[in-house]
Amino acid sequence: DVQLVESGGGSVQAGGTLRLSCAASGDTYCMAWFRQAPGKERVGVASINTQLGTTYYADPVKGRFTIAQDNAKNTLSLQMNSLKSEDTALYYCATVDETDAYNYWGQGTQVTVS
């Protein structure tokens, strides 16, 4: 199993920036950030596949968020710029298992934009 630990959440004013980090206990090639706002379902925010060299961003965050993975350090990051109140959510780091399903999750880190 892969253990994931997020950090970097916090409170920020609209227009501000935050950087989330996720430390993985093992090698991974496909990782993603999800978020869940109060009363809403968890949704994908961004993902990265280092084998294919591809990234994906959900429409609401395109141009504002940047996902990156440091394979040497087994860390995933999410740079969030121009934050909006609608970005307020609990953010989760996730990675795939041998079936390519996102079955490994971190505990989440809270992002609050006011």
Write the layout of secondary structure elements.
Layout: E1 4-7, E2 10-12, E3 18-24, E4 30-36, E5 43-49, E6 54-57, E7 65-70, E8 75-80, E9 89-96, E10 102-105, E11 109-113
Parallel strand pairs: 2-11
Antiparallel strand pairs: 1-3, 3-8, 4-5, 4-9, 5-6, 7-8, 9-10, 9-11
Detailed description of the structure:
With 114 residues, this protein is an all-beta fold. It is 0% helix and 54% strand. The N and C termini lie far apart (37 Å). The mean pLDDT is 94.
Please report the distance between the alpha carbons of the first and last residues.
Answer: 37 Å
Number of strands: 11
User: What is the count of DSSP helices, taking H or I runs of 4+ residues?
Assistant: 0
Strand percent estimate: over 45%
Mean pLDDT value: 94
